[in-house]
Amino acid sequence: MLALTGVHAHYGPIEALRGVDLEVAHGEIVAMIGANGAGKSTLLMTICGAPVPSAGRILFDGADIAGLPTFEIVRRGIAQVPEGRRIFPRMTVLENLQMGAAAGDATPSALAAGLERAFALFPVLAERRTQRGGTLSGGEQQMLSIARALMARPRLLLLDEPSLGLAPMVVKQIFQVIGEINRAGTTVLLVEQNAYHALRLAHRGYVMAQGRVVMSGSGAALLADPDVRAAYLEGGAKPPPGA
Hints:
This protein is α/β, with parallel strands linked by helices. The protein contains ten helices and ten strands. The chain folds into two domains: 1-77 and 155-235, Rossmann fold; 84-153, no CATH class. Helix 3 (93-103) packs across helix 4 and helix 3 (93-103) packs parallel to helix 6. Residues 235-243 have low confidence and may be disordered.
C-alpha cells in the first residue's frame, strides 16, 4: 500500500530524513519508534506533503505522491492525526468532525455514516457534540483528533504520538480503539514513544535514529529485542502502569 524508497527531507540546511526505506502493507499496523529528534514526526509529515522530500519516492497504491499538495494526498486516502492533537478549540465537537469530512469531500450520506462511526468509537464525543473542542479534557481532545481524521474516510491512517500527555487508563483506551479501527479495515502507521504499547499492538515495527531506519522486524520480535528493550523500555523494565 505504502512504500518509501530512499526518502530524504530537509528543513532548510538541516537534513531530517536521510534515505528512509519503509513499507506498510494493506491491513497492517506498523509502528515507528525512536528517541526525540529521530525524524519520526518528520516522516509522517513528509508522507502528507510538507516538507516535500528532497530525494526519494513515496508510493501509495503504486503511484508516486511525493510533491503532491496535502489536500490531494488526503483525497487519495491518507489522513494524519498530528502530534499535539491540533483540534479547532473554538469549534464544537460536531464542527471539528465536519471539518474532517470536508477534507475528504464527503457526501451527506458519508458525513452521516462518519459521525455514526465516530460516536460509536468514542461515545463521549456524542455527549459533548455541542461543546467547544478547547474545553474538552486532553484525552477527549485526542479522541476528537482521531475521529476527525477518520471522517475523511482514509484507507491509511497516520498517528503521531497518540498517547502523549495522557493518563495510563486513557492511553489504554486509545490503543484499544486503534486496534478496532484496524480490524475494521483501516491500515495504520503509528509513531509512538510508548514502545511497549506500540510494539505490542503492531504487526511490524521500525526503529529510527538520526533520520534513518536502523532496525525493523515484527512487533513481537522488536519488543523482545534486548537492544530495543534497553533503549526504549528502560532496560527491560515492567510494562507501564495500566498496560
